[in-house]
Fold this sequence. Notes:
It contains seven helices and six strands; from the N terminus they run βαβααβααβααββ. By secondary structure, the protein is α/β, with parallel strands linked by helices. Strands 3-2-1-4-6-5 form a six-stranded mixed beta sheet.
Amino acid sequence: MLEEAPDLAAILVPIGGGALAAGTVLAARQLKSRVKVIGVEPGAAADTHASVRTGRRIQIKRPAPTIADGLRQTEPAPIPFDIIRQGLADIILVSDRDIAEAMALLWRHYGTTAEPSGAVAFAGLIRFAAQLPKGRLGVVVSGRNVDWTTFAGLTGGSLPCLDSTANPAPQQAAEPAKRPARRGLAAPEAS
């Protein structure tokens, strides 16, 4: 993402065990980028958020149920945590409602199907747009491991595979400047 858009002000990345967030931090360092890497975690499974705030790995007994089941960890992994603790600009928390809204918007505006865990960073963009760094923002959207019935139930829509109006033609999905980058989304500038 940074090779395609080196002027990004920030990259939002989902956090579960921490490997993807840590890898994003390391990639930014390798490219000598000044981009701020911001982790996004489900509020119901905020083990990394709590750990970074205390400066040490915290184990939560049992995360509350969340639709972002791929990010339901009880504690951050040791090696990624050391990188995250030093390299993330912040960690923001989103609700299941925020995640479901992000999934629906990704579908409606970008024609992209994302599982709940994969839509967490986009949920952070939507929920905290006004508080994020000014400038271009990158968002890591990953994973399509969701069945259509679950997807429709979470997004409040009809089954995309059966509803011809639910998946607009690519040219109608978004303006060219808002189209997904090859590896993630390069969102329009925050105002």
